[in-house]
Amino acid sequence: MIDHVSIGVRDLAVATRFYEPVLATLGMKKLREWPDAAVGFGKDYPEFWLNRRSRMAPVPDDSGTHICLRAREKAAVDAFYAAGLAAGGASDGGPGFREHYSSGYYAAFIRDPDGNRVEAVTFITGK
Question: How many domains does the chain have?
């Protein structure tokens, strides 16, 4: 079981402004902050961390790294994607079913301002 994940970002303020509305669609809020070092988001405890890495290069599209977050319903996946684009992220796969992953797999993929690939997914039964 994974307790938390951390991603590197070049500008903590920019990343925080990006992730606050995006993660809010999944029920997360900012819970901890170490000025100019890290910000933790979560529901009950920090489970998704941003760590400032000011000399980090943008993440290449083919890095293979991505983080997938669980959404409660299809509408939350749609909201996650819309919030990501509105906050300055890039599409890496709009909301939709990914039957090649599994039946009922509904997801959307975005890239944050640093190039990190983040997904929201829900599983729709009886589809």
Answer: 1
